[in-house]
Amino acid sequence: MSKTAQLHFDGKVYELPIVEGVENEKALDISKLRAETGLITLDPGFKNTGSTTSSITFLDGEKGILRYRGYSIEDLTEKSSFLEVAYLLIYNELPSNDKLESFKQLITEHTLVHEDMKKIFDGFPASAHPMGVMSSLVSSLAAFYPESLDPNINSKVIDLNIIRLIAKMPTLAAWSYKNEMGHPVNYPDNSLGYAANFLKMMFSLPTEEYEVNAVAANALDKLLILHADHEQNCSAATVRVVGSSEATLYASIAAGINALWGRLHGGANQAVIEMLEMIKADGGNVEKYIKKAKDKNDSFRLMGFGHRVYKNFDPRARIIKRHCDDVLSSFGIKDQTLEIAKKLEEVALSDEYFVERKLYPNVDFYSGIIYKALGIPTEMFTVMFALGRLPGWIAQWKELREHGQPISRPRQIYTGETLRSYNK
Ligand code: SDX
């Protein structure tokens, strides 16, 4: 007998079904609420609202648990690789070695982008933010692969579009950086691994080929794993909403890139480094900025702190913080912003305001310090987040279609003018 909850309204009693997940999460199924009671629910920011069931990622905000398809983020970061994790997220199983090799082979066959895309590039001023360039270019892929527009697209074509996206994103990302620098673009070197190939396309110059540093490539591969999915976050929810209208995979991912760009979401990693640099320039006065973050009349927020779901710690932040020390020491870098970040964390976590609101460092708090150590410019930090999140977005879009989910169309409570006649 499935559990129910009772709703007493307008002199009637309604039984609402309770849905239970495999980790004992419980939800009130309100899919028939309006038809039966005339009521809708109201939940700005969906803080209490589930949009779907999903078998991709499990988070426990209280216990700081993050698992992709049942595997812990700690295990995957330590033992797996980004492309293996991408395959796991999208196809629900860790690939055999043969399957992984053919997945990698397919990706290397699609790393080139159509030469005509350079004409789109050339239209962007150097001042264009790489996230805007990326979302435009990913959206334009539908123009080069019109078969992706078929609403009855079959799984083979979907798989090919998935390969194209995973293969071309690093190339488009590196090109968006070269556009900003006014440098000639580099072409992929398919003899290299995914992260190494990206770094080489980013940093090679006609005058000097970039020597891939194995420590840098490994650190980047781990960062991509840590960003690969995060259930129904703002950008994944956006990908699902756009995908629910039967928009193409390319259009849905481009929408996710735009949602991630905001500084409350993926744009936070750029905002964190800008904040740390500001504090450093201001003499490293951590207490002053903690005070500002607590002041309701001050718009300053401690970027990289707080999370909608994690209320104890973000397991990714812990892993990245550990990697920070390893990467900086292997490059012999003494980065004062890391010291400032650690001091901010120490002071904030003993301050009532942060403790009471359960605000802890999130994935964005330390990631920028590693990106900076790898030589990646601040404006590219959120692009790195998008590169990592791509397989998660793809998995969410694919699951939405496989579930046959209806088009997303929330309701509202109207608070505007009542009927009035037009008599100007
Ligand atoms: C990501 O959802 C995901 O999974 C996202 C993500 C992913 O992998 O996809 O994990 C990636 O987006 C991480 C978050 C990156 N954003 C930031 O670091 C920006 C700074 N953080 C916040 O703006 C905020 O904490 C959010 C946006 C992350 C969460 O916002 P919520 O859940 O809507 O919480 P809220 O804004 O209602 O804050 C609750 C209280 C408020 O104070 P009161 O009104 O109760 O007095 O906490 C305060 C807020 O003012 N608060 C902060 C704060 N974050 C929240 N105060 C100071 N500094 C902060 N950073």
What does this protein look like?
This protein is mostly helical. It has a domain at 4-50: Rubrerythrin, domain 2 (Single Sheet), CATH 2.20.28. 52% of the residues lie in helices and 7% in strands. A three-stranded antiparallel β-sheet has the order 1-2-3. A hairpin with a 2-residue loop joins strand 1 (4-9) and strand 2. Helix 9 (214-226) packs antiparallel against helix 14 (315-330), helix 10 (234-243) packs antiparallel against helix 11 and helix 14 runs parallel beside helix 17 (363-373). The longest helix has 27 residues, at 155-181. The mean pLDDT is 95. S-citryldethia Coenzyme A is lined by residues 45, 230, 233, 264-266, 268, 293, 301-309, 357, 359, 362-364.
Q: What topology emerges from the helices and strands here?
A:
Layout: E1 4-9, E2 12-20, E3 26-28, H1 33-37, E4 57-60, E5 65-68, E6 71-72, H2 73-79, H3 82-91, H4 97-108, H5 117-122, H6 130-144, H7 155-181, H8 194-203, H9 214-226, H10 234-243, H11 249-261, H12 268-281, H13 286-294, H14 315-330, H15 336-348, H16 352-356, H17 363-373, H18 381-403
Antiparallel strand pairs: 1-2, 2-3, 4-5, 5-6
Helix pairs in contact: 2-9, 3-18, 4-7, 6-7, 6-11, 7-8, 7-18, 8-9, 9-14, 9-17, 9-18, 10-11, 10-18, 11-18, 12-15, 12-17, 14-17
Bound molecules: s-citryldethia Coenzyme A (SDX).
